[in-house]
From TrEMBL:
<feature type="transmembrane region" description="Helical">
    <location>
        <begin position="454"/>
        <end position="474"/>
    </location>
</feature>
<feature type="transmembrane region" description="Helical">
    <location>
        <begin position="35"/>
        <end position="52"/>
    </location>
</feature>
<feature type="compositionally biased region" description="Basic residues">
    <location>
        <begin position="669"/>
        <end position="678"/>
    </location>
</feature>
<feature type="domain" description="DUF4131">
    <location>
        <begin position="32"/>
        <end position="169"/>
    </location>
</feature>
<feature type="transmembrane region" description="Helical">
    <location>
        <begin position="510"/>
        <end position="527"/>
    </location>
</feature>
<feature type="transmembrane region" description="Helical">
    <location>
        <begin position="418"/>
        <end position="442"/>
    </location>
</feature>
<feature type="transmembrane region" description="Helical">
    <location>
        <begin position="332"/>
        <end position="349"/>
    </location>
</feature>
<dbReference type="Pfam" id="PF13567">
    <property type="entry name" value="DUF4131"/>
</dbReference>
<feature type="transmembrane region" description="Helical">
    <location>
        <begin position="355"/>
        <end position="376"/>
    </location>
</feature>
<dbReference type="GO" id="GO:0005886">
    <property type="term" value="C:plasma membrane"/>
</dbReference>
<feature type="domain" description="ComEC/Rec2-related protein">
    <location>
        <begin position="223"/>
        <end position="506"/>
    </location>
</feature>
<keyword id="KW-0812">Transmembrane</keyword>
<feature type="transmembrane region" description="Helical">
    <location>
        <begin position="388"/>
        <end position="412"/>
    </location>
</feature>
<feature type="transmembrane region" description="Helical">
    <location>
        <begin position="253"/>
        <end position="273"/>
    </location>
</feature>
<keyword id="KW-1003">Cell membrane</keyword>
<dbReference type="InterPro" id="IPR052159">
    <property type="entry name" value="Competence_DNA_uptake"/>
</dbReference>
<feature type="region of interest" description="Disordered">
    <location>
        <begin position="669"/>
        <end position="696"/>
    </location>
</feature>
């Protein structure tokens, strides 16, 4: 208790932690709780606190519980507020009209369009918002009402238990359908007064990519407007494998450079006018202008979570200048996290929030320790080569701290670890700070004059150099390591231990190392499934003798997700007829037989193969309905099971199965099979290829 009271000034830093625990408790529930539950729990905590408020220990216990229950309630109410109609089933070819809310150019051609106020003739709920992939290259004007023939689908469910849940992501975006355009776009009404910000963002992106062609233009657009769809997939992979992906996310580096440039240029310019400098608070004027510009830049970038966090922290610092107050750095992080969680509680489960706040909190906590020694050293070592050495040490230390603090979250979400990230950041961050971002900010100032090319051309040169660094580092031996999936409990232990280590200042902060090590042990306890099947029985994945995963077929999303969750993928091709190299898999036109660990597994693709498979196999996985025709096997997963519960994972050792439906639970965004209603006449539907699904 004495240690706790001695660090009383650090208590407010736990406010976002308990708020996040309440939000995490809501999202981890297997069923959707009644709407009144969160507020009822908060009332139950407040009552004893009011009665016993004079007791010293009451605030220590009751306040965290109150914040935790409020976080639970915030998560509940947010999921209700964003509720929107969701498409029940594939629409087939339908005539769709709506207002273009957002347009993103895609690197491999075409564009991705978000439509609002959707109008389409459907049997069932009609979404109000949909995202379509269009093949036409001519940009669709933002704000225009358009009409086209399209193929609509519900937001896709995870391709494996534990994989990325796009359905939940779409739920909080209000996105009720995705699909692809099947005809040219017909403009019904030209753009009106609405959607001016998205229109401006799209126009800026077009002007950037016109001045900077190719991959450098896609990266430059991402740095200015936050649109990453124009970055080629190969370049994006190189940034991830080299540890430079954070540069593509508009965050602290971008905001601080913009705010710093605006503040010092305006203040320096006003200082040249003695009458103004001596009679007016030019420092506060500069801070106010910098705050306004950073806010507009955040809006221009689409206000992603890292940009929100960076704006909030930069804004609080500038507000402190306006109020003649000094800013407390760790409290900046805490209040920024609280504001983001209150506005968008679903951000807690995403990589942007976790990696952004983990990096900033770790950096500030580290520099709280090393700031004084570094300042003392700089006083006694003031020569140019000493300053260069101090700068390099700062870059290396920042990279090590930020990289190590975000590595687990990257491994949890992407199952990848960039080995050479320190080297890549040491080379790329100075180029980004000195050449890329200053020219990016200058281009925005010159754009109203039509002179943006004066800044964008040199920016393109600098971006090309950064791209070359990313490509070179990503090509180094062992540049990126694929890690096994980490269970949620492992990430929770690591996070809570890390927070304990970062927030407290006394020696007891080292207690946080124990749960961090426990969380990391989750990697060694991971046991990937032996068999994966998608929700249609279209694609199978089998664990071979060498530990690799042999996949029958599937698009990019299936293969990449299965590679991360249960890989590595085998380089061998699935035998359409014959045996695999290790002899465990044999296939014919009716299906396949897989023998592993004394178990016989039948994979059925044709109704004609049901009888033979059910007579000889202990496990049957069928892409066609089996119903009661299979009574001999110990486990049967047929087309009906896949339709009802989505993709399945199977462990042969104890015949344990896990479906997407069981993993998701009964939540508003969960997998819900809907029976097709019979019609007298139906518009023929066009099948959706795996390639089309990947593009959506």
């Amino acid at each position: 208790m004495d240690r706790l009271l001695a660090e009383r000034e650090r208590w407010p830093l736990w406010l976002p932690v308990f708020l996040g625990l309440g939000i995490a408790a809501y999202f981890s529930l297997p069923v959707e709780p009644p709407l009144w539950l969160g507020l009822a729990l908060s009332v139950l905590v407040v009552i004893p606190w009011v009665v016993l408020r004079r007791r010293a220990w009451t605030a220590i216990i009751a306040l965290p519980l109150l914040v935790l229950t409020l976080g639970f309630a915030i998560g509940q109410w947010r999921s209700v507020v964003v509720q929107a109609p969701v498409l029940e089933r594939h629409s087939g070819k339908v005539l769709v009209s709506g207002v273009v809310a957002e347009v993103e150019a895609v690197a491999d051609g075409g564009q991705r369009v978000t439509l609002e106020r959707l109008q389409v003739n459907l049997d069932g709920p009609v979404p109000t918002k949909a995202r379509l992939r269009l093949k036409q290259a001519e940009p669709v004007p933002v704000g225009a009402e358009i009409r086209l023939w399209a193929n609509l689908m519900p937001p896709s469910q995870p391709v494996a238990p534990g994989a990325f849940d796009f359905a939940r992501h779409a739920w909080f975006l209000g996105l009720g359908a995705v699909g692809s355009g099947l005809s040219e776009v017909e403009i019904l009404t030209p753009p009106g007064q609405g959607y001016w910000l998205n229109r401006l963002r799209h126009q800026v992106t077009l002007r950037v990519t016109e001045a900077i062609p190719g991959a450098a233009g896609g990266v430059a657009a991402a740095l200015i407007t936050g649109e990453t769809a124009g970055i080629p997939r190969q370049v994006m992979d190189q940034y991830r494998d080299s540890g430079l992906a954070h540069l593509l996310s508009i965050s602290g580096l971008h905001m601080s450079l913009l705010a710093g440039m605006a503040f010092f240029i305006l203040r320096g310019g006003l200082a040249l006018v003695p009458r103004v400098a001596l009679n007016h608070p030019i420092k506060k004027w500069a801070a106010l202008v910098a705050m306004i510009l950073t806010f507009l830049y955040m809006l221009l970038a689409g206000a992603p979570v890292p940009a929100q966090r960076a704006f909030l922290m930069t804004g609080i610092v500038l507000l402190a200048v306006l109020l003649d107050r000094s800013a407390l750095s760790m409290r900046l992080v805490a209040w920024a996290a609280v504001l983001v969680l209150v506005v968008s509680p679903e951000a807690l489960t995403g990589p942007s929030f976790q990696m952004s706040f983990a990096a900033v909190a770790a950096l500030i906590a580290t520099y709280e320790v090393v700031a004084k020694p570094m300042a003392g050293w700089s006083v006694t070592h003031s020569r140019p080569h000493h300053r260069l050495l101090l700068y390099l040490a700062g870059v290396v230390l920042s990279t090590l701290v930020a990289g190590s603090s975000t590595a687990l979250y990257g491994a949890y979400h992407f199952n990848r670890f960039a080995v050479w990230s320190v080297l890549a950041n040491l080379l790329a961050v100075p180029i980004t700070g000195v050449a890329v971002m200053p020219f990016a900010m200058l281009s925005l100032l010159l754009m109203p004059l039509g002179l943006e090319h004066l800044a964008l051309v040199p920016m393109g040169w600098a971006v090309t150099v950064v791209n070359m660094v990313a490509a070179w580092v990503a090509a180094l031996p062992g540049a990126a390591i694929t890690l096994p999936p980490l269970a949620p409990w492992g990430m929770a232990c690591f996070t809570l231990g890390g927070l304990w280590l970062l927030i407290w200042r006394g020696s007891w902060r080292l207690w946080g190392l124990a749960p961090m090590v426990l969380g990391l042990s989750g990697f060694f306890l991971a046991h990937p499934p032996d068999l994966l099947v998608d929700g249609r029985g279209y694609a199978f994945g089998l664990r071979m003798e060498d530990g690799s995963l042999l996949v029958s077929r599937g698009g990019r999303i299936i293969k990449e997700s299965w590679d991360r969750r249960a890989g590595p993928l085998s380089i061998e091709r699935w035998p359409k007829q014959g045996r695999s190299h290790d002899g465990t898999l044999s296939c014919d036109p009716l299906g396949c037989i897989w023998r592993r660990d004394g178990m016989v597994v039948a994979l059925i693709q044709n109704e004609a193969g049901i009888a033979a498979a059910c007579a000889s196999a202990q496990v049957v996985v069928s892409a066609v309905p089996v119903r009661d025709a299979c009574r001999g096997p110990r486990l049967v997963i047929d087309r009906i099971d896949l339709w009802r519960r989505g993709a399945h994972a199977l462990w042969l050792e104890d015949l344990k199965t896990l479906s997407v439906a069981k993993w998701q639970g009964k939540r508003p965004w969960s997998h819900r099979p809907v029976r097709r209603r019979k019609k007298v006449e139906e518009t023929p539907s066009e099948p959706v290829s795996e390639t089309q699904k990947d593009d959506i």
